[in-house]
Amino acid sequence: MGTPRAGRTGWRGAELTVATVPTRLAARQIAALRGKPRASFLLAVDDIRRRGCAAAGVRLTGAGLSAICRLDLYGAWRLLTVFEAADRCVL
Prior knowledge:
By secondary structure, this protein is of the alpha+beta class. The chain has 2 helices and 5 strands. The protein has helices spanning 24-32, 35-51, and strands at 19-21, 58-59, 68-72, 78-85, 88-90. A 5-stranded mixed beta sheet has the order 1-5-4-3-2, covered by helices on one side.
């Protein structure tokens, strides 16, 4: 399994396929992941691609934060997501 890429990839049987687009910083951090943190990240991204916002975790609250969700991965690792549209998620 490789690093998530922009584009319409995901589970073919799903009605919704979400593009996951990492920021530059996220791409560097993703490339450095190893072991269980990497495995949990890849599973989380696959779930986001299939189920969209429903898989994105806990929505943060506060001024300017309502579009950001936090997903607990492994240990202290967290994934922050922002949905620009129903089919596009920035990691």
